[in-house]
């Protein structure tokens, strides 16, 4: 009877306590790495979305200047910066404050001989909770 009971105990299959602990440890490490990837991925997507919206805004301002034509683009009259913020619904223009500062500069490299103007528009901002400044800068040349 004792031999029969011993065979019965030895023939039972299942996981030992050590095997279960190792499996739980591997699961915890995998979940931690997955959460870190999700957090970083979410941050990268947010930055890419902001950069795309800022680039669209700056590009529309550039197109407005280009549409004025060579003779109507003011030179060396750097206007005050414009401001806007990005919300989930899109871009909100602001008059004096905002998260994104847009500055433009128009120059004529060689007034006597060049025949073109350099138009530069730059937008700068900081992502929420970050110290690193981001920027989008577009430059174009408008010929006479």
Helix count equals 2
- Radius of gyration, in Å, reads 31 Å
Question: What's the mean pLDDT score?
Answer: 79
Give the spatial strand order of the biggest sheet. Answer: 2-1-3-4-5
Which overall shape is indicated by the principal axes computed on the Cα atoms?
rod-shaped
Low-confidence segments, ≥5 residues, pLDDT <50?
none
Which bin fits the share of residues in helices?
A: 40-55%
Could you give the order of the helices and strands? HHEEEEE
**What portion of residues belong to β-strands?**
25-35%
Number of domains: 1
In terms of topology, how is this protein built?
Elements (H helix, E strand, L loop, with lengths): L1 H10 L5 H52 L13 E6 L2 E5 L5 E8 L8 E11 L6 E11 L1
Antiparallel strand pairs: 1-2, 1-3, 3-4, 4-5
What does this structure look like?
By secondary structure, this protein is of the alpha+beta class. The protein has one domain (16-143). The protein has two helices and five strands; from the N terminus they run ααβββββ. Strands 2-1-3-4-5 form a five-stranded antiparallel sheet, covered by helices on one side. The longest helix is centred in the N-terminal third of the chain and has 52 residues, at 17-68. It starts with a helix and ends with a strand. The mean pLDDT is 79.
């Amino acid at each position: 009877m004792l031999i029969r009971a011993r065979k019965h105990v030895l023939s039972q299959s299942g996981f030992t306590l050590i095997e279960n602990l190792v499996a739980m440890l591997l699961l915890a490490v995998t979940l931690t790495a997955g959460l870190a990837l999700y957090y970083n991925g979410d941050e990268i997507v947010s930055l890419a979305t902001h950069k795309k919206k800022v680039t669209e805004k700056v590009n529309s301002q550039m197109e407005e200047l280009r549409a004025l034509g060579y003779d109507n683009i003011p030179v060396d009259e750097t206007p005050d910066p414009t401001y806007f913020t990005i919300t989930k619904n899109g871009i909100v223009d602001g008059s004096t404050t905002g998260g994104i500062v847009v500055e433009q500069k128009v120059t004529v490299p060689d007034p006597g001989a060049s025949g073109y103007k350099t138009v530069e528009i730059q937008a700068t901002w900081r992502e929420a909770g970050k110290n690193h400044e981001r920027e989008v800068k577009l430059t174009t040349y408008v010929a006479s």
